[in-house]
Design a protein that fits this description.
alpha+beta; about 20% helix; Lysozyme; six-stranded mixed β-sheet; 11 helices; seven-stranded mixed β-sheet; Immunoglobulin-like; single chain
Length: about 600
């Protein structure tokens, strides 16, 4: 670093000498006054992720160095501020300049790269190129993102965050997923553990059957919602923030009000990244996303939205309660505005109140344990419930807790699950659900069967257990729904506890074959003494075609060949007899996930040799 400083001072001294200025290369003010001017353009957009070398070709090649009022152009190249460009798959990155002379980095105070000017490099399919043939787009990608405003509105209107704080979270979501709900992490698939959705929810380890990605799917199942939908994912984000990540939400709510709203956006983005996303090198990534949040605030922020939602500290919430047992509710509510009413309630899965208490309050704080004796968990029947806390202030009513839980009896039952129903051959079906019992579960056997009652198994999986609850997602690697040929099956789950064996689910489902079109316009295209050629119209979704032949129009047709590829629409049948008639029909087929599905037969056609 000392050599770097001396060299930088030398360059500056030469520049100032050329300008006719007297300099002292050891003077402190020389160090303090050195800076690089901001580049004219802060955002650069590309349709998809490209190499750092390609990015550098599109970013400014020179910037202005300023020292004591003297301005000089210097050649620069650019590097990723977080140093993780090649190992991550975000949709936005911060790049900072590096002076090309001996590859020395220029810092605003000769050593602080956090204060360097920077640009944002963003990727996304919605980027529109300004010039044909150019990799670079100057369209404002995040400004035109159709989901950005939807996310910000949800964070303010439903979660009660200030507009600036909402912009901080939205900036993070943009970097993670481009605000696309049905988004799998770049470079990964679902099977090898790719992050998914707005927040790129991921199981850890990635190949684990349980974790945040699985919980998203289960949340959708128990709510009767599609986990791939943006509205479902926003509700799940709220669910996480009102339960396991309640502390993160409170930290964001605790950000001090300030005249500089962009700074609030920065702070919210920093906290969200550092405590909720927790990426590699979270310190630098949080700084970059804070800087990005300031730009999001400038575009989407509404300075009139100043809502400060109440906070819930140190809450308790149930997960599984044995029937007849109680549970103690705890937590401290606080608010900048006077609290007028608090409602603590347990509802069943249909939203009907099962037990609860509403109290009138005239204070900025409240201890939830004061209503504990009114929340009668021990009176609840077996079933699935939601524990909720609502707080009312002069700004409105806020839901600070919304946690699902199960009341279990000794007879095991399955909750928050999905059933296969009807789906297309080759598609995947993701198992989810919780099996719970007040007795200890010894084992769970799940399977796919051709016959009712667990007869003629196709796939089976047994898992041993010694708990009151088990997540069915662990069966997904063994019950290969996407490998099933098109027909009818039974999905069945048997549970053994310390007191008995039970069938908790048996469901009929159907795998539909592909809707493969029929081959049309089958015809003879050439004939000779010992062979004929036939051709037909292409079926675009086909993986290939099976050719069948008969010696008579209504005779038995036997497969004589398989033609691979949908575009291969001719077949030459050699070794035939002279002056004979042959009859053909063709079946298209599709292969997906290792399963072959055969489509309908074409009309028959006669072909003659000479």
């Amino acid at each position: 670093m000392k050599k770097c400083k001396i060299f930088c001072v030398f360059i500056i001294s030469v520049l100032l000498s050329l300008a006719g200025m007297k300099t002292d290369i050891y003077a402190d003010e020389v160090y303090e006054d050195v800076r690089i001017e901001e580049p004219e353009q802060k955002f650069y957009y590309f349709n998809s992720k490209i190499t750092v070398e390609e990015i550098n070709r599109n970013l400014p090649q020179e910037l202005t160095l300023v020292s004591d009022g003297t301005r000089t152009s210097v050649k620069v190249h650019w590097k990723c501020f977080t140093d993780n460009y090649d190992t991550t798959s975000y949709y936005a990155y911060q790049f900072i300049p590096v002076i090309d002379e001996q590859n020395l980095e220029i810092h605003s105070e000769l050593n602080d790269e956090k204060k360097l000017p920077y640009v944002f490099v963003c990727f996304g399919d919605e980027c529109v190129e300004e010039n044909a043939g150019s990799e670079l787009s100057k369209a404002s990608s995040y400004k035109s993102n159709k989901n950005m405003k939807k996310i910000i509105n949800y964070l303010t209107n439903t979660m009660g965050l200030s507009s600036a704080a909402a912009c901080g979270i939205a900036a993070n979501i943009y970097c993670e997923s481009n605000c696309i709900a049905d988004n799998i992490e770049y470079g990964y698939t679902w099977d090898n553990g790719g992050g998914y959705g707005l927040c790129q929810w991921t199981n850890y380890p990635r190949t684990s059957s349980t974790g945040r990605r699985t919980e998203l799917v289960k949340f959708g199942a128990r709510s009767g919602l599609d986990y791939r939908d943006i509205n479902t994912q926003l509700k799940y984000l709220f669910y996480e923030f009102t339960t396991s990540y309640n502390g993160v939400l409170n930290d964001i709510k605790n950000i001090k009000e300030a005249e500089d709203k962009a700074q609030i956006a920065y702070d919210a983005a920093y906290i969200w990244c550092y405590e909720y996303e927790v990426p590699q090198d979270k310190e630098k990534t949080a700084i970059f996303r804070g800087n990005f949040a300031k730009s999001v605030w400038n575009e989407y922020g509404d300075i009139n939205i100043k809502t400060r939602a109440p906070k819930l500290g140190n809450p308790s919430y149930p997960s599984l309660i044995n029937k007849g047992r109680g549970f103690s509710v705890k937590g401290n509510v606080s608010s900048d505005k006077k609290i007028s009413k608090i409602k603590v309630v347990v509802t069943d899965s249909r939203g009907k109140s099962a037990t609860g208490k509403t109290v009138q309050v005239n204070s900025n704080t409240y201890n939830i344990s004061d209503v504990d004796k009114y929340i009668l968990f021990d009176k609840l029947r077996e079933g699935q419930y939601y524990y909720k806390i609502y707080i009312t202030t002069e700004d409105g009513t806020y839901n600070l807790m919304n946690k699902d839980f199960i009341v279990a009896s000794n007879v095991p039952a399955i909750w928050s699950y999905n059933k296969p129903g009807v789906y297309e051959c080759g598609n995947k079906f993701m198992l989810c659900g919780d099996i719970a019992s007040s007795d200890t579960i010894v084992s769970v056997n799940a399977g796919i069967y051709k016959k009712k009652g667990g007869k003629q198994p196709v796939y089976e999986k047994r898992v041993d257990c010694s708990d009151n609850k088990i997540d069915l997602n662990i069966m997904n690697q063994s019950l290969l729904f996407h490998k099933l040929p098109g027909k009818q099956y039974y999905y069945r789950i048997n549970v053994t506890t310390t007191t008995g064996s039970y069938t908790v689910l048996e469901s009929l489902f159907k795998v539909e074959p592909y809707n493969i079109p029929k081959v049309k316009n089958l015809r003879q295209s050439y004939k000779s003494a010992n062979y004929v050629s036939i051709k037909w119209n292409r079926v675009s979704i086909a993986s290939g075609y099976r050719i069948y032949r008969s010696d008579s129009y209504n005779g038995k047709y036997v497969k004589v060949a398989t033609v691979k590829g949908s575009a291969n629409v001719t077949y030459k049948n050699t070794g035939l007899k002279r002056k004979r008639a042959y009859y053909y029909r063709i079946y298209p087929y599709v292969i997906k996930n290792g399963i072959t599905t055969v489509g309908p037969a074409s009309d028959k056609v006669q072909a003659n040799t000479r």
